[in-house]
Amino acid sequence: MLRIEHFSKRYKGGKKAVDDLNLFVEAGDIYGFIGHNGAGKSTTIKSVAGVLEFEEGTITIDGIDIKENPVACKKCMAYIPDNPDLYEHLTGIQYLNFIGDIFEVEASVRKERIQRYGDQFALTGALGDPVASYSHGMKQKLAIISALIHEPKLMILDEPFVGLDPKATLLLKNTMHEMCRRGAAIFFSTHVLDVAEKLCNKVAIIKDGKLVVSGEMESILKDASLEHLFMEVTEHEK
Ligand SMILES: Nc1ncnc2c1ncn2[C@@H]1O[C@H](COP(=O)(O)OP(=O)(O)OP(=O)(O)O)[C@@H](O)[C@H]1O
């Protein structure tokens, strides 16, 4: 579903933020991406989402190259940044309809999904209010609902659990499972290692722009915890 091959990114005047990264996410995967602050997670995620240019390597989504055909890639994925920049002057429902228009989701299908996800995430009552009046968690929920409107094959999320209340956290986890059961794939960054350990079937650890561990959670961890492994590889490995 997502193939990142020999991907490197250098910001102007800086060292490589990501260096020769190879990572493969398959349909049905919930793939966690972890690393210290500044390790290169957001840089990778933004490049996959097609919002950051890069010079080295290839990224394909469902077999489509993000550089060659960014629009086709964006049609089959959803990206939720760590701090969603929503249109504050719109109401929640206007925003969802705007996203529905962009992704050409048919009106009756859209209505049903907005109702279902709005109810699930307890946001239906606030959809008539301007986004500017939402709390951080409400904006996160709106961004999640907008991502689900077109049933993406790949969902990419940067720190999705920050700011969500326990109920919304559980709902998001359930939604991720549900998406994967119908053959979609999820790739997300997080600092919450116990959530990643329980939720993900695969994990990758990045350190100073380089991948240090990746693969099936069970075979990587053996009897250790993800926290233990993370500390071991990020503190000791050069
Ligand atoms: N716009 C930018 N211009 C220059 N350097 C940048 C820019 N964005 C990120 N960097 C640098 O690239 C490296 C990787 O940053 P990135 O944001 O990808 O890390 P991260 O793993 O997402 O960190 P965090 O967990 O703090 O969000 C860091 O050294 C950072 O300083």
Topology:
Layout lengths: L1 E9 L5 E10 L4 E5 L6 H9 L6 E6 L2 E2 L4 H6 L1 E4 L11 H11 L4 H14 L15 H13 L5 E5 L7 H16 L3 E5 L3 H7 L2 E6 L2 E7 H5 L4 H11 L2
Parallel strand pairs: 3-8, 3-9, 6-7, 7-8
Antiparallel strand pairs: 1-2, 1-4, 4-5, 9-10
Helix pairs in contact: 3-5, 4-5
The structure holds adenosine-5'-triphosphate (ATP).
Q: Estimate the mean pLDDT confidence.
A: 92
Quaternary structure of the protein: single chain
Structural class: alpha/beta
**How does CATH name the architecture of the largest domain?**
3-Layer(aba) Sandwich
CATH superfamily heading of the largest domain: P-loop containing nucleotide triphosphate hydrolases
How many E-type strands?
10
**What is the CATH topology classification name of the largest domain?**
Rossmann fold
Q: What are the segments in which pLDDT stays under 50 over at least 5 consecutive residues?
A: none
CATH top level of the largest domain is Alpha Beta
Domain ABC transporter: 2-233
Organism: Faecalimonas umbilicata
GO molecular function, one term: ATP hydrolysis activity
InterPro entries: AAA+_ATPase, ABC_transporter-like_ATP-bd, ABC_transporter-like_CS, ABC_Transporter_VariousFunc, P-loop_NTPase
